[in-house]
Amino acid sequence: MKIAFIVWEFPILSETFILNQIVGLIKRGHEVDIYACQQGDISKVHPDVKKYQLLERTYYLNQIPKNLLWRIIKGIELLCVNFYKHPLLYLRSLNFFKYGKEAISLWLLYTAIPSFQKSYDIIHCQFGTQSFSGMAFRHMNAPNAKLITTFRGHDISSYVQQRGDRIYRQLFRNGDFFLANCEYFRQRAITLGCNPNKIVVHGSGIDCSRFRFAPRYPHPDGKVRIATTGRLVEKKGIEYSIRAIAKLAKTNPNIEYNIIGDGPLKHELQKLIQELGVSHIVKLLGQKNQQELIEILDNSHIFTAPCVTAKDGNQDAPVNVLKEAMAMGLPVVSTLHGGVPELVENGVSGFLVPERDVDALAEKLDYLINHSEIWPQMGKSGRVYVEKHYDIEKLNDELVKIYQQLLRPEDSHKKLSVQPATFMPI
Fold first, then answer.
1. pLDDT digits 0-9 by tens, 318-347
2. Which CATH architecture has domain 208-388?
């Protein structure tokens, strides 16, 4: 199969779930091209980007200015430069009788690629926010391809809150099939108007072989090392874990809390750490690549992901950093948030507490600190669960199966056989 991935930014270290799918499809003999709206940081990339020469497979779409006047001016410039290369293509991009708002807004004009020589079986939009580019890309460049969209988090939470419940109405009419990375977001899409027979749960997988399992035991130095990984943004809830650690430090002086990641709240969180007087315990380690992250988690005992619903409505699915920590054998503490309860079995692989509840978070962390005898069994339970439900090899096989069923004309009237329960807790 020939597959086009539509993404916002590439390459990007924090979106290994997309990279894992791309690599998995290539390893299975399929051709994958990546169409991105903007270029990511190429100075620090995942090893697979280089190994599979993915930058050579990446193309960058024209940026569409938000300002309408500037969009018109740049659009005229595009026409002047490219019209002679493929006049019929650009005339088609302006056909508002056929394409309506997509043509009037100049989305089709900016997405048209002159002298386009490729063909695709599948166009896969990563995040609902990229579906608009995906629909335009199909209209202009690959009209015979099947259009699939994956909903992953902010696209089905905060984005909908900002743009309104009707934002995906056109996509639900025109898209061929939809994936959600948890049942929580599948139900949200159905509520917004998605045909329940055209959407299944397909989780974000991890390469379990890269995350070596090791039972956790107390360290000879008596120190308990707690870790968090994630972007320093509101929905990761890191403020609350810092406050919980500060509370614990009064009775548990021999703890250490390492936060891996970067983001807009870095200075605010650093100020909070100083105000709470825990600079000697809590460390902001910044962005790390996967191998550096694994080394830190290897030396940790407990992992916490205190996710919260942000003020703008942004929510998380079962986050990959939790899967990675669980795969490595760490007992976890997280929150009753979004799709997280579909990953963490409360009392089995870890604990779940209400969002923003510092006292409850501190209580569960304190329990784990003082009951190290349950670490090995909790860690083992987490590893087994992640291997069963989120192994990237199994999920990539399922993705190929979804593509293949979608391309069979005789099955086009049937619901795909991949069932949401495949990826739900038992």
1. 999 999 999 999 999 999 999 999 999 999
2. 3-Layer(aba) Sandwich (3.40)
